[in-house]
Amino acid sequence: MGQSSGIGVLDKAVQVLVTAAANPVALAELCASTGLPRATAHRLAVGLEVHGLLMRDDAGRWTPGPLLGRLAAGATDPLVAASADVLPRLRDRTGESVQLYRADGLSRVCIAVSESTAGLRDTVPLGARLPMTMGSGAKVLAAWADPATQRAVLSQAAFTERTLAETRRRGWAQSVAEREPGVASVSAPVRDQGGSVIAAVSVSGPVDRIGRRPGVRWAGDLVEAAAALTARL
């Protein structure tokens, strides 16, 4: 069970939280991983969900919730700190919502956001965990991932190895209605000082507002913002 605080219900809740944070889990998997009775595991997971510490994906599995992202953002993270200046400027330039994603296994996590002030928004909650199999941010992160991760992603992805090669060649990726109907996005890789890709910065919004070729409009702005993030690290 790991360390004990002496507060049984707290220790069990942390078990559930840590298990769901590692990989999306259904109730049966949660019980198997934690050793908790089904009723206890369900009660704790639902309670954590109510408080935003967990959420459920389309398959009904528990994953980290948006509150975890907000809490994590308060910790010292150079990339998140750098985004505080860069993302709002990119949002103002494009007029659309801006996100920063970091890869986590076969998922990508939204670690920073700057919302559009327009009436119709493409909202990705801070801390949201999205698949690496669809969307421009996923293409960017997968394009520079290690070979094993690439193979795992491509076995389920809406895009191909050729798409990843094209992403590496031009330095950005776009998607139209891949992750969500009616939503388009364009993303660029963020590198550390050593040149390794550590994140993807994205602009997203309704297709009927930003068009079906968002890369033509904003690829240059995304690449510039990515370079600004690197410079601030």
How would you sum up this structure, described in words?
It is a single chain. This protein has 233 residues and is an alpha+beta fold. The protein folds into two domains: 8-64, Orthogonal Bundle (Arc Repressor Mutant, subunit A); 69-232, GAF domain (Beta-Lactamase, 2-Layer Sandwich). Helix content is 47%, strand content 21%. The protein is built from ten helices and eight strands. The protein has helices spanning 8-22, 27-34, 38-50, 66-73, 78-94, 136-143, 147-154, 161-170, 207-210, 214-232; strands at 54-56, 62-64, 97-104, 107-114, 129-131, 173-176, 183-191, 197-206. The strands form two sheets. Strands 5-4-3-8-7-6 form a six-stranded antiparallel beta sheet, sandwiched between helices. Strands 1-2 form a two-stranded antiparallel sheet. A hairpin with a 2-residue loop joins strand 3 and strand 4. Helix 1 (8-22) packs across helix 3, helix 5 packs antiparallel against helix 10 (214-232) and helix 6 packs across helix 8. It is globular and about 55 Å long. The model has no long low-confidence stretch (mean pLDDT 88).
